[in-house]
Amino acid sequence: LTVFRLPPYTPDLNPAEGVWAHLKKSLANLAACTTHQLAGKARTRLKKMQYRADLLDGFIAETGLNLTPP
């Protein structure tokens, strides 16, 4: 496990911003009746993202950061 320190808030350099943008886009046309349904769908879609290494690598690549260990 290698930990990389990122600036406190720089959306362009934060891969998590890509994750949330992708999640929001995937939930855009959802008509959930309750907050519990919405939370369940969000959890399910985040879990599916967890197993898509190519997608997660894309979020990191989008930042333009070089993440090779020193």
UniProtKB/TrEMBL annotation:
Membrane-crossing residues?
Answer: none
**One example GO MF annotation:** nucleic acid binding
The name this protein carries in UniProt is: Transposase
Q: Which domain of life is it from?
A: Bacteria
Among the Pfam families in the record, one is DDE_3
Question: Which organism is this entry from?
Answer: Streptomyces yunnanensis
What InterPro entries does the annotation carry?
RNaseH_sf (IPR036397), Tc1-like_DDE_dom (IPR038717)
Domain annotation Tc1-like transposase DDE: ranges: 1-29
The record, for Gene3D superfamilies, names: Ribonuclease H-like superfamily/Ribonuclease H
Its taxonomic path starts at: Bacteria, Bacillati, Actinomycetota, Actinomycetes, Kitasatosporales
